[in-house]
Write a structure and sequence with these properties.
single chain; alpha/beta; D-Maltodextrin-Binding Protein, domain 2; 6-stranded mixed β-sheet; 5-stranded mixed β-sheet; elongated; binds 1-O-pyrophosphono-5-O-phosphono-alpha-D-ribofuranose
Length: 210
């Protein structure tokens, strides 16, 4: 049995589509809007569960999932002890610094983010002292209401920034979704995991049309 941790949210549909294209017969009932968090397909030897994206590497590191699909942004933040097997080239976006276009931040700016480790590392590398404020979502709100001078967040279409009068200032990293594996599972289930990687690679090389 191969257990796969899937991320809820923006990646889910694309990831599911990619797995189906790679030959996994995942029934329609496994949908993000359903409240059901697990799906087992005994005849296919597969088991899936749906987790918050930030938690996917944790489930994989602890081995309750053999493999998982997760954004590079989460891997950069969580730094879990897992194998990163494949760039799935889906859900491309950027992890960026953004803020109000006309805002001169103070000497010791406040930075709001869902990615406190990434933000702390980035500003340290820049030699800039900042106060990082950890929020759980709607990060764009922070500079508008005066909680922070800058944000570090995902920019995909740029629409959320634009609609809130903010601009992208610096790109920290480009992000796509990755296939990750538990180290023990990779050793014990090499054949299954390698086969899936090969299937996914050929789908990716044909051009991902999801
Ligand atoms: C993400 C991210 C931005 C937005 C960017 O939020 O945090 O807010 O999407 O996408 P865009 O550039 O296409 O507008 P998400 O929808 O995941 O929810 P959250 O605000 O709760 O984090």
């Amino acid at each position: 049995m191969l257990t796969i941790a899937m991320p809820k949210g923006r990646i889910f549909e694309e990831a599911l589509c990619l797995l189906r294209q790679a030959g996994l017969a995942i029934p329609e009932e496994f949908a993000e809007h359903s409240r059901k968090l697990t799906l087992t397909l005994p005849e296919a030897g597969l088991s899936f569960f749906l987790a918050k994206p930030m938690d996917v590497p944790t489930y994989v590191e602890y081995g309750v999932a053999d493999i998982g699909i997760v954004g590079k942004d989460v891997l950069l933040e969580e730094e879990r002890d897992v194998y990163e097997l494949l760039d799935l080239q889906i859900s491309p976006c950027r992890l960026s610094v953004a803020g109000k276009p006309d805002w001169k931040p103070p000497l010791y700016p406040r930075v709001a983010t869902k990615y406190p480790q990434v933000a702390t590392r980035y500003f340290k590398e820049q030699g800039q002292q900042v106060e990082v404020i950890h929020l759980n979502g709607s990060i764009e709100l922070a500079p508008i209401v005066g909680l922070a001078d800058r944000i570090v967040d995902i920019v995909s279409t740029g629409r959320t920034l634009k609609e809130n009068g903010l601009v992208e200032l610096e790109v920290i990293a480009t992000v796509t979704s990755r296939l990750i594996a538990n180290r023990g599972s990779y050793r014990m289930k090499t054949q299954m995991i390698t086969f899936l990687c090969e299937q996914l690679t050929s789908v990716i090389q044909e051009g991902v049309s999801v």
